Amino acid sequence: MTKKQKLKIIPLGGLDEIGKNLTVVEYEDEILMIDCGLAFPGEDMLGIDLVIPDTSYLVRNRDKIAGLVLTHGHEDHIGAVPYVFRNINVPVYGTRMTLGLLEHKLKERGMVNDVARITVKPGTIKKIGRHFKVEFINVNHSIAGAVALAIHTPAGVLVHTGDFKIDCTPINGDMINLTRFGDLGKAGVLALLSDSTNVERPGYTMSERTVGERFDEIFAKSGDKRIIVASFASNVHRIQQIINSAVRNKRKVAVSGRSMLTIVDVAAELGYLHVPKGTIIDIEDINRYKPHQLVIVTTGSQGEPMSALTRMAFSDHKMVEIGSGDLVILSANPIPGNEKAVSGVINELFKKGAEVIYESLAEVHVSGHACREELKLILGLVKPKYFIPVHGEHRHLMRHASLGVQMGVKPKNVFVLGLGDVLELSADTAIVNSSVPAGQVLVDGYGIGDVGNIVLRDRKHLGEEGLIIAVVTLSNTREILCGPDIISRGFVYVRESEDLIEEMKDVVSDAVLAGRSTGNGDWNAIKTSMRNSLSDFIFEKTKRKPMILPVIMEV
């Protein structure tokens, strides 16, 4: 291998943030994509539905892409595929569960026949392109079918953990294949990319099975109450344990929420969810059963406004009315930023008279991500020459980088990258010497990337201050023929502010005359005069700055 033949690692998502994971591995003229996820919008992204990675670099180099490898089926790892694959079309590799969930997304968008999907099993190796051999390693996570990756290249082996934890008593399947991580470490690993989400938590992540034990306790003591459990739809292991506890306590299970219904159908069809015949009933049939015979599994653990649990809490659900005979279990931690929404739902549930159990009060949730001791164990087994923390906010990446140094990686060989950084690796050198376009693309309805910072700023302005439209009709000699008329939306109620509206009309009339004299009758000069004069007047009177839209009609 010559010095010019270096391996490039380019993160396009998943660093300095939670979500929209996408990593590019590049060798010579070939590219391998790892994951292609989305993130959900922050409170400041008004009207935005989803956030996906900026893939302009990949689109520009689409002919070089050998394939996309998926580590598991969570939205932050597969959710952007239908959007990104409008401009990119390469084979997609993943386990049965992962590709089953992806297939459902592709069907919704009429793309199911456009994307080649290749099913892989943990423990197998796939040749992808000329330079990449990808080994799929079984790991434990909060969804079935999760894998880590060992990417064998001419420059060396990369190990990408994906999202993982070490669960010695998993609900389904085998525990994480630590032996294989150790074998790779003994043979020599060029670089390790490892999940940083829970690096701030000491110790080990509890086994998913402990939640099942807690469910059994709660169900057994629930008496004649109806039980409603809200969880992440993608957590098939959690759904399995809810079903198991329901069966043991002779309860039927109804499913509410579109994404929950999809996951249950896909997981059951693929054999990842085992449901005794007759256990699941239609949500429309719950009134045929007494409360102590029912468990309702629902979406809404994050307080999402349109989720099933939120609609139940605010009496907006067609089938479920919350009351004093209900026991509601929130089996999930609030994602950072969702705490207020979750708290609001909990308060409404209490107001309805329901008994509510949530994670801070009882062990009804465990994480799917490795805590600090598990991260140290992987570092100790893999013994990488270079270490790149991934999947986390900047503080997570920095804490994980420090952990890597503690575990023996040389400080100069630990890289906390930013989105778009190009890390070039060889057996002897590692350097970040360039960058590619990276960031976020906003999805609003069918629009992808057509909403940017200026549009978001205007939406924020409208939401906070309102809108004033000033309409005036002018002759071709710029004389006022009709108006001005003032239309207010979200600023003041016109009928209760007639004096202020009349004053605003006078200000606009004066502004038209001023614009006509200073701008030689130019339309833009008159509009600018109307906007500036009205803005100054409104701020002087109200200390508010609504958006002002001047409209001139010519007769």
Explain the overall architecture.
With 555 residues, the chain is of the alpha/beta class. It contains 15 helices and 26 strands. An 8-stranded mixed beta sheet has the order 7-6-5-3-2-1-20-21. The chain has a 6-stranded mixed beta sheet with strand order 8-9-10-11-12-19. A 6-stranded parallel beta sheet has the order 15-14-16-13-17-18, sandwiched between helices. It starts with 6 loop residues before the first strand and ends with a strand.
Key features of this structure:
single chain, 555 residues, alpha/beta, 15 helices, 26 strands
What is the CA-atom radius of gyration, in angstroms? 29 Å
Number of strands: 26
The count of helical stretches stands at 15
Seen as an oligomer or otherwise, the chain set is: single chain
Query: Separation of termini?
Result: 76 Å
Q: Please state the structural category.
A: alpha/beta
Q: How many strands, what sense, and barrel or not for the largest sheet?
A: 8 strands, mixed
Average pLDDT figure = 88
What share of residues are in beta strands? 15-25%
Across the major sheet, the strand order is 7-6-5-3-2-1-20-21
Shape: globular
Given as residue ranges, the uncertain stretches (5+ residues, pLDDT < 50) are none
Considering DSSP H and I runs of 4 or more, what fraction of the residues is helical?
A: 25-40%
